[in-house]
Amino acid sequence: MRLPCEVSVASRLLPSAGLRGPGRAARAVLALGKPPAGGGGGGGGVWLLVSTARHRPGAKYQLRENIEHLFTKFVEEGKATVRLKEPAVDICLSKANVGHLKTFLSAMKLADRGTSEESLPLSTLAPPKASEVEKPKTKMTITSRKDYPFTQSFPYTLEQLQASYCKLPRIDMRILCLKSLRKLDLSHNLIKKLPVTIGDLVSLQELSLQGNLLESFGAALCNSTLRKSLQSLDLSQNKIKALPAQFCQLRELVHLKLDDNDLIRLPFKIGQLSQLRFLSVARNKLPFLPNSFGKLSLESLDLFGNPFEQPNPLAPDIQLKIPLTLWEHSARATINYRSVSLSSPSQCPPVDLPSAPVSMAVLTGAEGRITPGSWRPPGRGKEGEMDFTSLIKLHYYFYQLRRFQVQQLPYSCHVLPSHLCHDLDMSKSCHCGRACLSSFIQTTVTMNLHSVAHTVVLVDNMGSTEAPLLRYFCSLTCYSQFLDRHLQSIR
Ligand SMILES: [Zn+2]
C-alpha cells in the first residue's frame, strides 16, 4: 500500500557522526513492498520506500525486526514517527489521512514481526509519479486563450485562479468545483451571465469580472454563501444597468468597483454595507444617490462622470395618498414596531389582541377608514389583489412581534406572502425615523461626499465633491419641517 503524507527523516547519530539534521518536511509517498529480485537491498522481508519530489527513486528501509518504536500519540492528527534500529533514523510522518495512516502503521508492525507477506497490503516499490510528490498547486495564472486548460483538469487544491483574456463566453463549470478557491479573476473575457452556482464557492473572498459583457448580477447570488465570504468584487467595464435590492446582503464587502457600467441607480439599501471602505462607480448613469448612501463610512469614493441632477428640495415628488390605505398603515406600524423593539425593547409592552384585521386597524390608527379599496395598496393592479388573507397574515405577524417581544422576528416567504415581504423590504425611512412604503414625499438634497468618505474623487471637471441624495418624508408635517429648516439655511 501507499501513503501520501509529509516526511522528514532525522538521524539519531548526529551530530557525532557529522550528519546534518532533519530538513523541512517534504511532500512524500510511502510504500510497503518487496524489492524486485536482484534489485538493491537484499536481506528479504518487507521494505519501506520513502519517495520525495527531490529524490523520487526514494530511500529504502528494511522493516523485519528493525522497528525500534512506533510513536503514535498524535495519530489522530495524522502524525506518527517510526524509529528504526538500522540505520538509526526517525522517520517523522505528518499531514497523512488518519485512517490510511493507522492501516499503514499496523501493516508496518506486522512487517516488523515478519508476518507472512501474503497477508500484507504490499505494492511495488516503484517511484511515484512526479505529481504525487509535488507540493499541491494553490495558484494558477492564465493570461491567454492558448494557455487555458480546455482538456486537462484544474488542480483541486487551487486557492487563486486567474484566467484573463481567454475569450471565455461563460464560467467554466470545472472552476465551480474548486472548493478551496479564495480568489477568482475572470477579467477580460466574454461572460454574459453568471451561474447561481458561483455561490457554491464557499471560500471565495475576491471575485473580479472586470471587462466582461455582464448585464446583471443575480439576486440568488446575493443570497448565497457569498454573503459570508465575499470581501472584494470588481464588476467594472460591464453592461450592468441595475443591481438587485438583495445586493446589500453581501455584508462582508470591503472593496466594490462598478466603474464603466450603465447603472441608473444604486441599490437603495447600500447603506447596509457597513464593512464597505472602497467604492468606485465612476462613468455610470446615476442621476442621484439613494437615501441610505449617507450611512456609508468609506475610505475612498469615486463617482466621477455621472449625470447627476441638480437637487431642488422645493420641487418635491408627492406620492402621498391621504387618507393612508389600511395596507400602508399596517405595514408602517409593523416596520416601525420592529425598529423600536430593536432599539429599546422595554418600550414595547405586550398586548393581547383580538384576532381580526379590524384590530390591526385599531392598533395602527386607521379605524373608521376601512373600505374595500383600502385593502389593497395603490397601484397594485386589479381590485382586491392585496386580499384579506394577506392582511390577516401581516396582522398575525405583528401580533407575534408584540406578544412575544421578539426583538427581531424575521419575516420570510414562509411567514408572509412573498409580495408582502417584498413591499416591507422596500420600505423607505423618513428623516423622523419612521417608515413609509408607497405613500411618501420624495425630493433630492445636496450631499457633500466628504461626509461619507475620507478621500473623494471629484465628481466632475468643475471640481465639485457634491452629489444629489434622495430624501423621503412620511407626512406633510415632516416635509414642511424640513422645508422650514432648508429655507432658513439658504436665507
Ligand atoms: Zn416622518
Q: Could you explain how this protein is built, in words?
A:
Strand 6 (about 80-85) and strand 7 (about 90-95) form a beta hairpin. The protein has 9 helices and 21 strands. The protein has helices spanning about 100-115, 130-135, 220, 225-230, 325-345, 355-365, 390-405, 420-425, 475-490, and strands at about 1-10, 25-35, 45-50, 60, 65-70, 80-85, 90-95, 140, 160-165, 185, 205-210, 230-235, 255, 280, 300, 315-320, 430, 435, 440-450, 455, 465-475. Helix 5 packs across helix 6 and helix 5 packs parallel to helix 7. It has about 500 residues and is of the alpha/beta class. The strands form 4 sheets. The chain has a 9-stranded parallel sheet, with no helix packed on it. A 7-stranded antiparallel sheet has the order 4-3-2-1-7-6-5. The structure holds zinc ion. The site of zinc ion (ZN) has 7 residues, from loops.
Instruction: Note poorly predicted spans.
Output: 344-359, 365-385
- Major beta sheet, strand line-up: 8-9-10-11-12-13-14-15-20
Q: Largest sheet, described in full? A: 9 strands, parallel
CATH fold group of the largest domain: PH-domain like
CATH architecture of the largest domain: Roll
Shape field = elongated
Total number of helices = 9
Question: What is the CATH superfamily label of the largest domain?
Answer: Ubiquitin carboxyl-terminal hydrolase 26/29/37, pleckstrin homology-like domain
Question: Pairing-aware structural class of the strands and helices?
Answer: alpha/beta
* Bound small molecules, deduplicated: zinc ion
Number of spatially distinct domains: 3
Cα end-to-end separation: 89 Å
